[in-house]
Amino acid sequence: MRIAILGAMPEEIEPLLEKLDDITRIDYADNRYFKAKYKGVELVIAYSKIGCAFSTLTATVLIEHFGCNMLLFSGVAGAISSELKIGDLIYADKLCKHDLDITVFGHPHGFVPEGQIYIYPDNDLISIAQKVAKEKNITLKEGTIATGDQFVSSSEKKEWIKDTFNADALEMEGYSVALVCDALNTPFFILRAISDSADGDAGVDFDTFMEKSAKVSADFILNMVDELS
Ligand code: ADE
Fold it and tell me: Could you give all domains of the chain from N- to C-terminal order, each with its CATH number?
């Protein structure tokens, strides 16, 4: 078993790297990848850089070049659901792309021909996450995560995404990573801790809480690796 752990920003993977010994750095395709062994499990850890293009590239490299056969994503998200507060953990039970728009040709938002509006993560990994949450008494929510190539900082936009996709949280990489994993038959799991509420305060909240929330997510992911090992 070789597990990929992917974040978008350095802060999303640093809490993991800090806990691992004997890390080997490999530079490939304009990015760095960190190989380590943890409790007998081979890990390849990377941050993709922000957004769908970079995360598509990095997820593909992790699977096709580094031979990872499972991918866990760790990072932060903006809350859409009023039940999600800063620091809360949410995993995607499905993912969509809120800024994909060829509606002028009669297609629904988030859809292109031969694609799918929603992509679904691996059920076994979801069960493992639920088990970890139960054993460690951690509150873990589930919901639809909407991805797009924009930092959302407006209540109006957030409400539109909620109404159009019934989404609970939003971020900038999940759907593209899901698409790669789905196409390459690689089980995946997308976890996010809330850093802001995607409203007018989002920029300030993100700067204030991103690092702490990123660590909440990374710690949970490492607990999942414990369970998988
Ligand atoms: N990731 C964390 N907060 C976000 C937001 N408000 N918009 C997009 N991605 C995010």
Answer: 2-228 (3.40.50.1580)
